């Protein structure tokens, strides 16, 4: 397991061009690492991520042309699909503000845990933009339902940790969200590497398939494939022997 910390605490980890580039580089490096199975994503200081830093566009400046602005837009949005495409499970530990692009990063994680001071807000609509941005309008309805998502997208209001838990945006609220994220990581690591990777892949794909039959067809093929792994045999033997399994990702 590794921890990835957004580190611009003086700006509540708002995304500058440099931070965006750094996070892309980290995700690219992690994608090729077979020795890392879980990633905990969090932020330094008081916030998780306050979204795009409107005062720091880096060399993109205020983006004078549609082409330049669109390139930056795609660069930011690709962080969300980058999180989804990682073979590792991503657990977001949200201890403060997760707004705008910060909310998108949290939604792009596979699991979210929150601290008591966590706040979640779409925010885009409050700065004169569409509330539908960086994958949020696709992800949020699938996590909390269309009705709640419509309200949050249209109003931009902030949701505290308890409300986020009630609506299913986070799975738990803990005094120490990093520690809670590490607990989730430990539970994930107790399972077979390929089984976990395939579960993540299938779950994300299931959000896009159009029917129960297509979903079951996907499950069937994946299940048969994992049943041929040595780790499956090891898990069955360990259960029978009443001992912890020793997985080798084979």
TrEMBL record:
Against Pfam families, the record matches this protein to: ECH_1 (PF00378)
Q: CDD domains this protein is in?
A: crotonase-like
Pathway field of the UniProt record reads: Lipid metabolism; fatty acid beta-oxidation
Q: Which UniProt keywords apply?
A: Fatty acid metabolism, Isomerase, Lipid metabolism
| Classification via InterPro entries | ClpP/crotonase-like_dom_sf, Ech1-like, Enoyl-CoA_hyd/isom_CS, Enoyl-CoA_hydra/iso, Enoyl-CoA_hydra_C
PANTHER family (alphabetical): DELTA(3,5)-DELTA(2,4)-DIENOYL-COA ISOMERASE, MITOCHONDRIAL, ENOYL-COA HYDRATASE
Q: Which family does it belong to?
A: Belongs to the enoyl-CoA hydratase/isomerase family.
Instruction: Please report the name of this protein according to its UniProt entry.
Output: Enoyl-CoA hydratase/isomerase family protein
Which organism is this entry from? Actinophytocola gossypii
The taxonomic lineage of its organism, from the top, reads: Bacteria, Bacillati, Actinomycetota, Actinomycetes, Pseudonocardiales
């Amino acid at each position: 397991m590794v921890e990835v910390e957004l580190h611009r605490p003086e700006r509540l980890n708002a995304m500058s061009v440099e931070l965006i580039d750094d996070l892309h580089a980290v995700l690219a490096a992690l994608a090729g690492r077979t020795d890392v199975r879980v990633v905990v994503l969090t932020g330094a200081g008081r916030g998780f991520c306050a979204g795009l830093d409107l005062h720091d566009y880096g060399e993109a400046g205020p983006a004078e042309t549609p082409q330049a602005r669109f390139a930056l837009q795609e660069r930011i949005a690709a962080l969300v699909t980058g999180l989804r495409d990682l073979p590792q499970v991503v657990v977001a530990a949200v201890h403060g503000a997760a707004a705008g692009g910060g909310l998108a990063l949290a939604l792009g994680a596979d699991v979210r845990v929150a601290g008591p001071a966590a706040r979640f807000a779409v925010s885009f609509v409050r700065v004169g933009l569409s509330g539908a941005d960086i994958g949020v309008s696709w992800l949020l309805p699938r996590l909390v339902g269309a009705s709640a998502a419509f309200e949050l997208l249209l109003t931009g209001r902030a949701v505290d940790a308890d409300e986020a838990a009630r609506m299913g945006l986070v799975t738990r609220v803990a005094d120490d969200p990093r520690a809670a994220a590490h607990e989730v990581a430990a539970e994930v690591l107790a399972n077979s590497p390929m089984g976990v990777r395939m579960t993540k892949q299938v779950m994300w794909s299931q959000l896009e398939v159009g029917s129960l039959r297509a979903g079951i067809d996907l499950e069937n093929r994946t299940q048969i494939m994992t049943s041929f792994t040595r780790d499956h045999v090891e898990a069955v033997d360990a259960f029978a022997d009443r001992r912890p399994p020793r997985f080798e990702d084979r």
